[in-house]
Specification:
Layout: H1 4-18, H2 25-31, H3 33-49, H4 53-67, E1 70-71, E2 76-77, E3 82-83, E4 90-91, E5 96-97, E6 102-103, E7 108-110, E8 122-123, E9 128-129, E10 134-136, E11 140-141, E12 146-147, E13 152-153, E14 161-164, E15 169-173, E16 176-177, H5 189-211, H6 224-234
Parallel strand pairs: 1-4, 2-5, 3-6, 4-7, 5-8, 6-9, 7-10, 8-11, 9-12, 10-13, 12-14
Antiparallel strand pairs: 14-15, 15-16
């Protein structure tokens, strides 16, 4: 494990490399609240891991007051965490964050209730989580994932995936577009309503054909506009 000065130098270099607005290392040292929050966490985590729970918790609140970022001292955070801007970021007690992770303002790594034990997410290496995204519960976000701004992630995400939406769903995996053929995979009220509409339209078409005496004859092709509507309903992205 590198020494304290080596870690500080590494954190500063990470900010300089990732943030085009950083003009100098001195500016990063003095003005970057995300960096200050990470350094504050390193101190509070030492107290927490050595049994000084109240001291660690109290100091984390001092850091929160000064930076606007709340990192529980019990969280496990790897190296080169970059918190850009950072205001409103919350990292819960049992959260695990890997190496080379980027968090933007308003990100929450939180729980979903009053359960005990591991109740916060695990974020693996090289993950980027966009503005205002919420990753909730004891789930895992795999390596090299991207979580879109404003997304709410409630299920584990495999590595090399891009997630967007409320609730979050995968739109890219391993560089390829993901098409959801079952709307219930998204599991939100709008998708369920669209699935019900698609089912009713199909039943009505069959009923109309029976009343017109079409029997088992081949169905007439849908008009181009109706076909596009049906495709939008059947393939939720």
């Amino acid at each position: 494990m590198p020494g304290l000065l080596a870690l500080i130098r590494e954190d500063v270099n990470t900010v300089v490399e990732l943030d085009p607005a950083a003009r100098s290392r001195l500016e990063v040292l003095l003005c970057y609240a995300g960096l200050h929050a990470v350094w504050g966490y390193r101190i509070t985590h030492w107290f927490w891991s050595h049994g000084f729970f109240l001291t660690g918790r109290w100091m984390s609140q001092v850091v929160r007051f000064g930076t606007g970022i709340e990192i529980h001292p019990g969280a496990e955070i790897g190296r080169r965490l970059f918190i850009d801007h950072g205001s409103g970021v919350v990292i819960g007690e049992t959260a695990v964050v890997g190496n080379d992770v980027t968090l933007y303002q308003g990100v929450t790594l939180g729980g979903t209730g009053k359960e005990r034990g591991k109740r916060h997410p695990t974020i693996e290496d090289d993950v980027v989580i966009g503005d205002g995204a919420k990753v909730l519960g004891n789930i895992t976000v795999g390596r090299n994932c991207r979580i879109g701004a404003g997304s709410v992630v409630l299920r584990s995400v495999p590595e090399n995936s891009t997630v967007v939406g409320v609730p979050g769903h995968i739109i890219f995996r391993d560089g390829e577009r993901v098409v959801i053929t079952d709307p219930k995979q998204i599991n939100d009220p709008l998708s369920e309503a669209l699935a019900a509409v698609a089912t009713e339209v199909s039943k009505l078409r069959e009923r109309v054909q029976q009343l017109e005496g079409a029997g088992s004859a081949q169905q007439e092709p849908l008009s181009a506009s109706l076909q596009r509507i049906m495709e939008d309903i059947d393939y939720q992205i």
